[in-house]
Amino acid sequence: MTYNFRRDRVQLQQVTANLILNAIEAMSSDQKEARELSIRIEQGRAHGGLLIEVRDSGPGIDPGNLEQVFEPFYTTKASGIRMGLSICRSIIGAHGGRLWADANEPRGAVFQFTLPRTENGFPEYLRAEAKVRRSPPKGPHAGA
What we know:
By secondary structure, the protein is an alpha+beta fold. It has helices at about 10-25, 85-95, 125-135; strands at about 35-45, 50-55, 100-105, 110-115. Helix 1 packs antiparallel against helix 2 (about 85-95).
């Protein structure tokens, strides 16, 4: 079966790059243990859509802060704009998906997001938006 996943590639690349860079930064502390980063893409299991996972072996996230990390200006890092994960969640939500964090056992964090599959590759809101743009102009200046 072929899946069609047309989305805003630039935005999805930004989300993926942000999650990967966060994982690399988390592992850059003075860890004496092996550093592991894995990226997994699974097709069809997440309600017929895509599941993308970024897993690291950094210090992880306190279980009580798993939702808080997506709030604007919340950070566990010394630098950064503190908006990255909030923006990532907004982008994934705008594409009809979901982004969440969890603990990676035995250490580290795992960030996962889903993107739904649609019949023609676009979520309903994008199909409606495209129809509006193609509508002929109306009003007194329509033919001008």
